[in-house]
Every structure is written in structure tokens, then in C-alpha cells.
Inverse folding.
């Protein structure tokens, strides 16, 4: 009986493979079977990947929020130091200009609005142009 069962299974497998590679017949039982088995095996893995992706997005948002806070603080601190009479090098102004561009880019990517640094940045640019005219850099 076992011999007949083995022969029957071998014949069924051979027939399945023959159907799979026959160009006239559009039935592909081996492909369907392997796809089904693959989906069952990878189901848990796909769920884990989706979960990791959502956690990664949360982490990215936290990193961006921290970077926004850091950049905002640096811009405001620079403006405050100008108001307190501290003089700066030309490169320090240029650094703040670059920081401000990065700040605006991150806000735009996150579809957020800037309501905090606009006035301070205007003061910084005005002082920069004034310092250029009077050559008041360190």
C-alpha cells in the first residue's frame, strides 16, 4: 500500500510540474502552491516589518522635533547675544543663515509653521547688513 501511495504522489507531482511548464495550459498549480506556502511563512514577518516601520516613523518625528527645537534655540540665542551687545564673526552669521534654512526645510517637510523665529531672524539679518556697512565684525 505504501508503494502505491509513493507512486501516486510521484505521479501527481510529475503531473503538476508538467502542467506548470506546459505553455498551452494556463493553470500553474505549483506556482499557486508555492505562493500560498510563502505567504503563510512570511505572514508574521510582514506584520513585524509593518510594526517596525510605524515605530521608525515615530522615532523620525521625535528626532525632527528635537532638531527643530535645537535649531530654534540656536537662532534665538544668537539674536539674544546680538541684543546684548555681543559682536560676531561674519562666519557666525553665515552659520545662522544656514541653520535657518535647515530649520525652514524641516518645518516644510513636516508641514509645520514657523511662528517663533521670524522676528528674531529679521533682527539678525538687519544687524548683519548693518555690520557689513559699518565693518563691525570681529
Amino acid at each position: 500500500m505504501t508503494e502505491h501511495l509513493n507512486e501516486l504522489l510521484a505521479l501527481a507531482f510529475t503531473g503538476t510540474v508538467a502542467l506548470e511548464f506546459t505553455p498551452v495550459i494556463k493553470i500553474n498549480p505549483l506556482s499557486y502552491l508555492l505562493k500560498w506556502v510563502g505567504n503563510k511563512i512570511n505572514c508574521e514577518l510582514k506584520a513585524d516589518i509593518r510594526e517596525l516601520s510605524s515605530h521608525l516613523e515615530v522615532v523620525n518625528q521625535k528626532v525632527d522635533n528635537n532638531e527643530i527645537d535645537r535649531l530654534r534655540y540656536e537662532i534665538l540665542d544668537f539674536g539674544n547675544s546680538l541684543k546684548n551687545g555681543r559682536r560676531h564673526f561674519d562666519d557666525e552669521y553665515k552659520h545662522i543663515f544656514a541653520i535657518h534654512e535647515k530649520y525652514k526645510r524641516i518645518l516644510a517637510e513636516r508641514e509645520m509653521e514657523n511662528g517663533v523665529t521670524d522676528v528674531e531672524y529679521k533682527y539678525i539679518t538687519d544687524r548683519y547688513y548693518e555690520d557689513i556697512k559699518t565693518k563691525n565684525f570681529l
